[in-house]
Amino acid sequence: MTATGAPHVDPTNTAQLQAWDGDEGSYWTEHDDVFNRSLDAYHDPFAAAAGVHLTDRVLDIGCGTGETTRDAARAATSGSALGVDLSSRMIELARRRAVEEGLGNVAFEQVDAQIHPFEPKVFDVAISRTGAMFFGDPVTAFTNIARALRPGARLALLTWQPLARNEWIREFIAALSAGRDLSGPPPNTPGPFGLSDPDRVRTILSTAGFVDIDLHSASGGMWFGTNADDAYQFVLGLLGWMLEGLDDNGRARALDALRSTTAAHETSAGVVYDSSAWLVKARRA
Fold first, then answer.
1. Other C-beta atoms lying within 10 Å of the C-beta of residue 144
2. SS3 for 15-80, per residue?
3. HSE on the CB side for 266, CA within 13 Å?
4. How many domains does the chain have?
5. Is residue 178 over pLDDT 90?
6. Among 7, 43, 102, 142, which residue's CB has the most CB atoms within a 10 Å radius?
């Protein structure tokens, strides 16, 4: 169910609004500590790719609960950071966290970055940590983002590599499928693997007005809980919809398989799965 006062979105992003301003966004907000910690391995490499300077004006696309936006604001002490997202609950939490952290140079808005009329040529860098893969029309979206950047401005993205290189989601799908043929989120469509193909990324960004496009492979462990039971509960809350259509026996097999995989990945540091991502850098022409 979409929250009242939701922003105007491009028709191609209607489903994303319903998800992120609905149950999915609520779940991410309630568990933002887990989601943020799951990406700890990419925190420093992503910050280095963004290279935010003291006076930069930063635009954070799909900012979620605003961790990367606030990081950018701390780096740009004589500049500013604006985070945008479709989720009203995530934006509300991002604003509260900014106040709690005493950051006066950061703002958050609930908008569709694909069509929002940003002030043109004002931002020095645009960033997005796993938030730019969901656009219904990525060429239109990145063209709009490019308009908001000054000539020569930087772009830094963290996007997932293909499903085959991401153990975490492969394992969860295999467990919850209970023998069904569930192939997982498709590539090259709005979703986690929408920007997993390097050639497609280069085509989208070059068409949108970016040059010097570079993709660097990165990998790291993703943390899903302090122990197997924590991870089991978290993943079940996130992906429990995949149990729909199963009979009682199938559901029991799926839940047992999920418990088995989280137990198999429990370490002294918590439940950790392998993952691979692209660090994408480009420059506004």
1. 20
2. HHHHHHCCHHHHHHHHCHHHHHHHCHHHHHHHHHHHCCCCCCEEEEECCCCCHHHHHHHHHCCCCE
3. 15
4. 1
5. no
6. 142
State how far the Cα of 272 lies from the Cα of 264, in Å rounded to an integer: 9
pLDDT in tens, 31-45: 999 999 999 999 999
CATH of the domain at 113: 3.40.50.150
Residue 6: its pLDDT value, please? 75
pLDDT at 180 (0 to 100):
81
| Paired tokens of 169 | 């989601």
Residue of 50, 58, 70, 279 lying closest to 148 (CA atoms): 58
Distance CA 265, CA 105 (A): 40
CA distance 248 to 24: 25
Residue 191 backbone class (left: φ over 0; alpha: ψ -120 to 50; beta: rest):
left
Segment holding 251, helix H or strand E: helix 248-264
Strands 123-129 and 57-61 come out as parallel
